[in-house]
């Protein structure tokens, strides 16, 4: 019973923490650290929520969550009374676990299918340009720039983008897209999109997804400005914004989102987090992520 109460408290704490975290602005100073914290909150909330239900369900076996589930599946006899509330908790816990797994797998499959279709389309309509090797060019007058993540990742720009941007600005945008590919930001977004599908009514989940989308764009900006001028990237983003750039297709990552917040950060960069604060947050992420699995294995 203590394990169930601790896991329930952990799940509630993660939910409240995520609610408060949606309004935090220190995240702009260290987007990668903030992304890790968002991931830790999501993993801990999911495991703690499921674990709290299952811990209560198998409490009559007095062996902890995993051991209790093994005993239940093996037909073992509980040391305490097994009644309807415990059965309902078991059904609810397993159902929640199944839903979280199902929506994650479904989101991944849909994204992979969308990318496969888009790659087939690019093979038909896109071309190579010797001026920008390794980049696919679409002969379309509207501005567009995005990447197709995956094992065979591709960066795509439109002819309209090449006409709109200067060479330095185009180089900045391409560096931004290369950062998305290099750091596999698509995998960062996948569980948040899946959680949004599972809980479409939750404003906290919707805001969390939006915040992570902004943070990965800022993280890509940070990587790009190591190689190009941040002001060139900022002017390129502004040109995208005023030109009415096309959004990235489903399953892709584009440079033309959350423009004004990113431009303001690029032009007026604030101080970064101190090393001590970074290490403190990273340590907290490790503790938070491992706490729920620990409680699944070690009964209290």
Automatic annotation (TrEMBL):
* UniProt organism field: Nonomuraea soli
* Lineage, uppermost ranks: Bacteria, Bacillati, Actinomycetota, Actinomycetes, Streptosporangiales
Biological process terms in GO annotation: proteolysis
Cofactor(s) required, per the database record: Zn(2+)
Keywords tagged on the record: Hydrolase, Membrane, Metal-binding, Metalloprotease, Protease, Transmembrane, Transmembrane helix, Zinc
**GO molecular function list:** metal ion binding; metalloendopeptidase activity
Q: Domain Peptidase M48 spans what residues?
A: 113-192
UniProt keyword Transmembrane, yes or no: yes
Cofactor mode of binding and number, as noted: Binds 1 zinc ion per subunit.
Keyword Transmembrane helix among record annotations: yes
PANTHER family, A to Z: POSSIBLE SENSOR-TRANSDUCER PROTEIN BLAR, SLR0241 PROTEIN
Which family does the entry's similarity section mention? Answer: Belongs to the peptidase M48 family.
Please report the name of this protein according to its UniProt entry.
Zn-dependent protease with chaperone function
Membrane spanning stretches: 33-58, 88-109, 279-298
């Amino acid at each position: 019973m203590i394990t169930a109460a601790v896991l329930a408290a952990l799940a509630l704490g993660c939910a409240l923490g995520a609610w408060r975290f949606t309004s935090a602005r220190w995240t702009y100073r260290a987007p990668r650290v903030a992304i890790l914290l968002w991931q830790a909150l999501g993993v801990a909330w999911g495991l703690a929520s499921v674990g709290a239900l299952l811990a209560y369900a198998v409490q009559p076996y007095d062996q902890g969550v995993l051991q209790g589930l093994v005993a239940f599946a093996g037909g073992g006899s509980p040391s305490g009374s097994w009644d309807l509330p415990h059965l309902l908790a078991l059904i609810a816990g397993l159902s929640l676990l199944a839903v979280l797994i199902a929506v994650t797998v479904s989101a991944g499959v849909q994204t992979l299918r969308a990318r496969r279709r888009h790659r087939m389309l690019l093979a038909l309509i896109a071309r190579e340009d010797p001026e920008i090797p390794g980049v696919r060019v679409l002969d379309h007058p509207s501005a567009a720039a995005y990447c197709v993540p995956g094992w065979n990742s591709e960066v795509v720009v439109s002819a309209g983008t090449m006409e709109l941007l200067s060479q330095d600005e185009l180089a900045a945008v391409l560096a931004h897209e290369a950062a998305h590919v290099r750091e596999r930001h698509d995998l960062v977004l996948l569980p948040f999109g899946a959680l949004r599908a599972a809980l479409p009514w939750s404003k906290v989940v919707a805001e969390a997804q939006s915040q992570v989308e902004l943070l990965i764009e800022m993280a890509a900006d940070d990587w790009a400005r190591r190689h190009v001028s941040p002001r060139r990237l900022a002017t390129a983003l502004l040109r995208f914004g005023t030109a009415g750039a096309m959004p990235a297709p489903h399953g892709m990552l584009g440079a033309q989102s959350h423009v004004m917040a990113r431009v303001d950060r690029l032009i007026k960069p604030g101080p970064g987090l101190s090393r001590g604060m970074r290490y403190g947050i990273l340590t907290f992420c490790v503790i938070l992520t491992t706490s729920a699995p620990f409680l699944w294995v070690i009964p209290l």
